[in-house]
Amino acid sequence: MTSHLHLISLLVGIVFSIILPIGVWFDRKRSFATWAKIISIIACMAGLGWGFIGLALLHSSVSDLDYSRHEGIKGVLGGICIGLVLSLLISKPYVKRVA
Length: 99
Known about the structure:
The chain is mainly α. α1 packs antiparallel against α2 and α2 (34-58) runs antiparallel to α3 (64-91). A two-stranded antiparallel sheet has the order 1-2. The chain has one domain. The protein has helices at residues 3-25, 34-58, 64-91; strands at 30-32, 94-96.
């Protein structure tokens, strides 16, 4: 993947990681469960960590051992974020509010 596409994918991931808890906490049509709000914040932190480590690896020169270690941490954080978001989407932890 080219450097520009990698940068765009990292920025999109960071933006959606920020949008997720905002959407869960301030949704006017749905009332989310407390555990879903906490999970959205944890997923946001994991997504931000994934994005910032990716940006740091993209613009730094480190040794091969450090690069692989950071790439591994980045993969774990990305997996945590994706898993938590999928669990929120599958479980539908909200009740529609009555106007």
